[in-house]
Amino acid sequence: MSRPTILGYVRPDGRVGIRNHLLVMSTVICSSFVTRRIADQVKGAVAIENPFGCGQLEPDLEVTKRTLINTAKNPNVGGVLVVGLGCEQIQADDLAKEIERTGKPVERVVVQEEDGGTPAAIEKGVRLLRRMAEEVLTQRPEEVDISNLTMGVECGGSDATSGLASNPVVGYASDKLIDLGGTVILSEAPEMIGAEEILANRAVSREVGDKIIRMVRKWVDLAASYNVDLVGTQPAPGNIAGGISTIEEKSLGAIIKGGSRPVQGVVDYAEVVKGKGLWLMDTPGYDVMSVVGMVAGGATLVVFTTGRGTPTGNPIAPVIKVTANPYTAKKMRENMDFDASTVTLGQEAIEQAGERLFKLIIDVARGKPTRAELLGFNEFVIHKIIPSF
Amino acid sequence: MSLETIVERQALVLNSSDNVAIALRDLKAGEEVVVRIGDSGLRVKFLNDIPFGHKFAIKDIPKCDYVIKYGHVIGRAKRDIKVGEHVHVHNVESLTVVHSVCRG
Distance (Å) from the C-alpha of residue B19 to the closest C-alpha of chain A? Predict the structure, then answer.
């Protein structure tokens, strides 16, 4: 059988995207309104409104910066307009220079530099972005090998069917993509608590295994340092109503979506993965924050399982929604891309459903829009490690 | 909406070393079902209502013994749990808990 191909946008730096977005990004909350106004006026443009960018201590600032830069560098983005205020910590020039290293077109607008304030900045931004659109939106995708695909796997609004059926189905697809030479990112370190030994035993080296244990331990210690139990947060009230009793139970069900292949390494939040195969990313279990981290880390597509039913998407990556809860498959059908409740009900084997899902993944990587894309879901929230000052 | 119309299986044991099973429909107190564990069957009478997706014990689990699902530890029993009893946050604690019933 011939290898599957996807429709890829090959960027100047060699990375391959499956979407071709024009990205308008604010350096700070103060330029977010201007950012949105600019994006609204140009077809094909998406806005990312950064809620931080000022009042941050260095290690926290570094996380925000890395997330913004690596999101803009994601190959699903064809061109970038950076919108700054002028007096903030994250300077538009610094972001633009770093993003330019990809060879993609990058422009900048700084509100305080414009004569007239925000209306002038919006006008200039729209003008720059329209010109960029002419260049970027004429690019056509080409047939490229499936190994160019980087898939983030996520679960949110989990219930007992997540660990039972939808995550094993996604795990099957993860293994298949890795066996074809692709890349998979598994995140949510707090949702590895109780399952860290399983992942560490699959690490390619002792060093990577130790790193996994340390990463997970850090989250246990962090919760304990506040003298609070995880239950109620991890698992969340919806998880508990769905039958999940402890974080260990949630974790054992969650890690299955990453499949069963060796763990190549661990990267920090929003850090770009350093090779093919299965990678772990140290993100919170807060699902949207985790998706944003994985997309910054290079995921061009996300497969997202949900038992309870969550509609979230991402500004630049298609998010495929999978549910194995028969109630959710019916009730939230307009938000779901894939029904795996057949596995829960014993009507279909995990392997069969996994093959079906893999076909859908290829379709989406060839341009088929997901429900989250069609409905316009584009949530964006960045992990924070220190309070703002 | 009733699941009974579409569900064929009633409960599922994921690993032969597990001491809990998962309800695949809303099961009622007093009801009896046969749960398949490997090649054998175990008749379980429910001591409580077990909602869809929730767990019930298929072995007696003494206080502070491990609760096993997926063949792995998912927590400890906060009190003695009988076969057929609902197993959830009221009688199971994570090993990560700050204030443990078992560790004191």
Answer: 13
